[in-house]
Design goal:
2 copies of one chain form a homodimer. Chain A is of the alpha/beta class. Chain A has 3 domains: 20-63, lambda repressor-like DNA-binding domains (434 Repressor (Amino-terminal Domain)); 75-171 and 303-330, Response regulator (Rossmann fold, 3-Layer(aba) Sandwich), CATH 3.40.50.2300; 176-301, Rossmann fold (3-Layer(aba) Sandwich), CATH 3.40.50. Chain A is 41% helix and 14% strand. Chain A has 12 helices and 11 strands. Chain A has a 6-stranded parallel sheet, sandwiched between helices. In chain A, strands 6-7-8-9-11 form a 5-stranded mixed sheet, with helices on both faces. In chain A, helix 11 (257-269) links the parallel strand 7 (251-254) and strand 8. In chain A, helix 1 packs across helix 2 and helix 5 crosses helix 12. The first copy, chain A, starts with 19 loop residues before the first helix and ends in a 10-residue tail after the last strand. Chains A and B meet through helix 4, helix 5, strand 2, helix 6 and helix 10 of A and helix 4, helix 5, strand 2, helix 6 and helix 10 of B. The structure holds a DNA duplex.
Chain lengths: 347, 347
DNA sequence: ACGGTATGAGTTACCGGTAACACTCACGTC
DNA sequence: GACGTGAGTGTTACCGGTAACTCATACCGT
């Protein structure tokens, strides 16, 4: 072994970053006083505070968040477990969560999912717990949040960005939006509206389908068989090819904008003009939607609001002292954005 | 004051989560031995290890990562400072970083930018430093990474996902891709290629423009004035409207796919067919690009590879003992993806 | 039989903060 | 003048791990 120990016999605490005690020594006070200054404790004289701050500045002292976390039991970090953060929805929510967290002086630790399974979500949450986060926000995709939460200690604050009974949750209204979308098409004179659905193991997909169906039945319109598929543009494209062959199809409600994009391409290739011959409506309002050909009429989900609200909910729980109140549920409304992919039915 | 102190006089350490010492007591060993078991220290007999693990399981003991971080000086957390994580590029990189980090048993703490300014990046990096991260990955947008790094302590491992001299960096080749794109169009018989550029204060935008220009001059083709704008589809749309009016425009290279999307819409609205009359080529290959109308020929950037490589670079630095080696630079190649928005020039 | 060494485990100190409590004054009150 | 009070500060212990060092024992070769 070569002697690689460089740790010289310094006058105590020489090498590393300065600590509370170094500042204290320099300022001629106790380390506790320095601690008080950095906690904004009221009972510190202005004079002392100034001395301490001067010493701290001179040493470029920065309080060690980890030591603080150990002593206080709070890491001021919240964990986010998310489904594919590459997608616009999750990415927007995570981004909004982080932004709000930053404003509240919290950090955000993100853990992605190895697979969209219950096990994977539970594992991710567990890792986060081990890391000492003060709370967790779940963006579980189609994994039922309630089941995941069962494996977590009940004292850990959790918010789900998905429907849930046993934990606080923030969700977008999945019923009124589809309703408005279908009504919009019906109002334009379409006798019915077809539905390119999302994967039926997703609650969102089921809710949107229900909204679509309710609007149709409420208007006494026939309810065509929904066309199943996944959330992708590729799936929308495949379904669009089939839909394009059916001349009776004049209006389609897609379960999200990506499906709508695929639809648009298939319709375009089949020579069926949008919106003149077929109206298409999406869901989400991704930033690109306004520049589809034609610009897509769609139902806007405010992902950012969702993220912000979920964080607020979580911080409430973290701040709450006593018994965990009944799980709060926030529902965010949607907004129909009419652009140019919908038009009156040609008579 | 009502007596809210519920802290009952328990047999020592009653309330909170079990610690090393609780496990030790139950297993009849010293706390250090328990620590050894959880560190996978080799010098623990199989028998003792089993006893400890049994006790730990019984107590549902989980080592406290914060205490460990304080003792070891390493939090096994890396920080990511990123430009708008709502965008596909940054989102993909962060996601890939997190995935790789997870495999290496690291956590990722993401901090977004309040504004895309040098100050903001430096502040974010500073916050992360205060939180005790083991290293930082910078996705600084157009903010020069080198300048940000100057304010950071030289011992902190940093990797920039942007061109940089003074720190390790991982970037996509921004020259060959545009070159290939333009060559592709020239090979199709176009006499020249117009360029809907990105914002010129971005290095990427400048490099892509340079690649475009180089390809043109190398082929002896005339170099039209590049059309400036930002990265958005809206900007692409505006420029597309102008380009559509000029019948001499038969091929356009857009600095990214969003611009191309806007271009496509404007061209479509002006009645100029793509690719029959005008070829359009993008950059990035966002997932939607394959379903644009028509599917977009574009230059693929492998954001995920970028993220993975940057993390590998960072872990190398964290693992490296002695002097910081010369900053490594990784360049990831691009790939031209030919779809249907490009076609031979009509003669 | 004896020193040398590897193995397995324990003891004590320490990481850098915070919390609880003790202490010293200055001040106001009766 | 004794005493209660509150502001400002210091002392000591503790959060839950790890590191360094110590120690007892077993095994080895000679």
């Amino acid at each position: 072994m070569t002697n690689e120990r460089v740790r010289t016999a310094e006058p105590a605490r020489g090498g590393g970053r300065p600590g509370l005690r170094d500042v204290a020594e320099l300022a001629g006070v106790s380390h506790q006083t320095v601690s008080r200054v950095f906690k904004d404790h009221p009972r510190v004289s202005a004079e002392t505070r100034a001395k301490v701050l001067a010493a701290a500045a001179q040493l470029d002292f920065r309080p060690n968040a980890i030591a603080r976390a150990l002593a206080t039991g709070s890491s001021r970090t919240i964990g986010v477990v998310s489904f594919d953060t590459t997608l616009f929805g999750p990415a927007s929510m995570v981004s909004a969560i982080e932004g709000s967290a930053r404003d509240a002086d919290y950090f955000v630790s993100v853990v992605g999912l190895a697979s969209p399974s219950r096990r994977s979500v539970a594992e991710a949450a567990d890792r986060l717990r081990g890391q000492g986060v003060d709370g967790i926000i779940l963006i579980p995709g189609h994994v039922p949040a309630d089941q995941v939460v069962r494996h977590l200690p009940p004292v850990l604050p959790v918010v789900a960005l998905a429907p849930a009974q046993t934990v606080a949750s923030a969700v977008v209204d999945q019923h009124d939006g589809p309703l408005a979308a279908v009504r919009h098409l019906l109002d334009l004179g379409h006798t019915t509206v077809h539905h390119a659905a999302g994967p039926t193991d997703w609650p969102e997909a089921r809710d949107r389908m229900r909204g679509w169906r309710d609007a149709l039945t409420a208007a006494g319109a026939p309810v065509p068989e929904p066309v199943p598929g996944d959330w992708s543009a590729a799936s929308g494209y495949e379904r669009g090819k089939a839909l394009a062959l059916d001349p009776s199809v004049t209006a389609v409600f897609a379960a999200n904008d990506h499906i709508a994009l695929g639809l648009l391409l298939a319709l375009h290739e089949a020579g069926r003009r949008v919106p003149e011959e077929v109206s298409v409506i999406g869901f989400d309002d991704i930033p690109e939607a306004a520049f589809f050909s034609p610009p897509l009429t769609t139902v806007r989900q405010d992902f950012a609001a969702l993220g912000r609200r979920s964080l607020a909910l979580l911080l409430d729980q973290i701040g709450a002292v006593g018994a965990p109140a009944a799980p709060a549920g926030v529902v965010i409304p949607t907004e129909l954005v009419v652009r140019r992919s919908t038009a009156p039915r040609r008579t």
